[in-house]
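[Discussion] Sanity-checking designs against the backbone

I'm trying to build intuition for which residues belong where. Below is a structure token string of 449 positions. I'd appreciate it if someone posts a full sequence so I can compare it with mine line by line.
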């Protein structure tokens, strides 16, 4: 019996920021495939409809089926969870109602012919299915590490020959080239897993590609070490990349390290954008979403970047930064409202301006315990920055260096059109820069020690 396939998004919750409410969660990438594509391979039919939040009804994207608010479903049908990434093919399923589970967690429902489903069915027979339960957007990183290798082995088959001038480290049989254009000087390292490049992929000379790695159609790999990632179609990637998920149509065309991150569609990472993906303590990364603390359980986690988000040149988001869909992130302490004007702030540290309990931004350290998001904030009070921290007692040289650097960052303006030297003498900023000379003396003294 052929069953129709419907996918069901969960109620909005903090762990799925910044993608919940911006796109159906079934359109996120788990391994080399979208969650929807995994369900379609699992059940053996294309998705008939995606049920999600009412405001996403009518969501349009090439290849995406009808998106609508949840409604009753008439069988025979399977209703699958968008937060579950199936593996392989479904086992034989009974004709009547059923409940799909993975390690005790309900991940789907089945409804028999002529019956109607509008929610959980009591006493439905349980069928255990293989796959990964996803608890949040951050779980796409461990899913990548667990699923990508086996996904690519299933994709291997006939391949173009190894391009002249390229070097293969490992088994050439783990290299799948399907009409990719590869310049001489490219290194393929398959010792860690397969490498599959789809039609139209372009690889520039000097790129070192380390498996497992998948690049979708018409993606450009412009150079640098790229490893352990699933890069969707029509992306541009340059510089160091490790364990990242690109949904597609994103741009990282310049140097800069991005690791253990999820990049939304049409996102743009400015030149020199560098993500932090590891805490100084080497402990599990904790997120804070709108005041809700979340334990990711992951030692390595970078940034979760929403659709259409943009970073300025030289941006260095800390671990678990989550630029919202359409948001714009600048250097530390700078943000732009989606579609709004620039917000000029003062660069101090990545956590200098964090979202507090309210919708405004704050400098209070108490509110900076979690990840930052890009959104509206209040302008800083210049008078609050005019008085430098006091020295209670003589400090060791290392401490003086640290304070000097902190002072330098505290008073350095960004996007003001002034250089640091001219700002010290500017009459409009005289109070703010009253301590510039003292700061220079302190920095010089620290250097001389």
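Best answer:
Here's mine. Compare freely.
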């Amino acid at each position: 019996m052929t069953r129709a396939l419907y996918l069901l998004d969960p109620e909005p919750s903090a762990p799925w920021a910044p993608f919940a409410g911006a796109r159906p969660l079934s359109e996120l990438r788990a391994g080399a495939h979208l969650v929807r594509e995994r369900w379609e391979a699992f059940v053996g039919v294309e998705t008939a409809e995606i049920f999600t939040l009412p405001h996403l009804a009518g969501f349009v994207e090439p290849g995406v089926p009808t998106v609508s608010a949840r409604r009753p479903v008439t069988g025979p049908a399977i209703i699958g969870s968008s937060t579950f990434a199936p593996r392989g093919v479904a086992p034989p399923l009974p004709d009547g109602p059923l409940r799909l589970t993975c390690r005790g967690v309900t991940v789907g429902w089945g409804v028999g012919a002529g019956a109607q489903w509008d929610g959980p069915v009591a006493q439905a027979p349980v069928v255990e299915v293989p796959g990964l339960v996803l608890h949040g957007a951050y779980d796409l990183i461990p899913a990548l590490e667990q699923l990508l290798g086996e996904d690519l082995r299933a994709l291997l088959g006939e391949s173009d020959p190894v391009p002249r001038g390229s070097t293969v480290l490992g088994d050439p049989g783990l290299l799948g080239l399907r009409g990719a254009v590869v310049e001489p000087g490219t290194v393929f390292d398959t010792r860690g897993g397969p490498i599959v490049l789809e039609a139209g992929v372009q690889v520039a000379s000097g790129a070192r590609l380390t498996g497992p790695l998948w690049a979708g159609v018409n993606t450009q790999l412009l150079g640098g070490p790229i490893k352990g990632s699933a890069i969707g179609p029509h992306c541009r990637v340059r510089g160091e990349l490790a364990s990242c998920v690109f949904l597609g149509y994103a741009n990282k065309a310049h140097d800069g390290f991005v690791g253990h991150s999820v990049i939304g569609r049409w996102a743009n990472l400015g030149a020199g954008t560098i993500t932090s993906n590891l805490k100084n303590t080497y402990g599990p990364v904790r997120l804070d979403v709108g005041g809700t603390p979340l334990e990711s359980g992951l030692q390595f986690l970078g940034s979760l970047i929403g659709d259409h988000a943009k970073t300025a040149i030289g941006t260095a988001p800390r671990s678990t930064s989550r630029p919202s869909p359409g948001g714009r992130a600048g250097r530390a302490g700078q943000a732009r409202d989606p579609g709004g004007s620039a917000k000029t702030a003062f660069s101090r540290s990545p956590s200098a301006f964090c979202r507090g309990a309210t919708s405004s931004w704050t400098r209070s350290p108490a509110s900076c315990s979690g990840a930052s998001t890009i959104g509206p904030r209040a302008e800083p009070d210049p008078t609050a920055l005019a008085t430098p921290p006091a020295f209670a007692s003589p400090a060791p040289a290392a401490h003086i260096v640290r304070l000097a650097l902190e002072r330098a960052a505290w008073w350095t303006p960004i996007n003001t059109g002034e250089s640091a030297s001219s700002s010290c003498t500017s009459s409009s900023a005289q109070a703010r820069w009253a301590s510039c000379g003292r700061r220079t003396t302190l920095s010089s003294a620290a250097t001389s020690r």
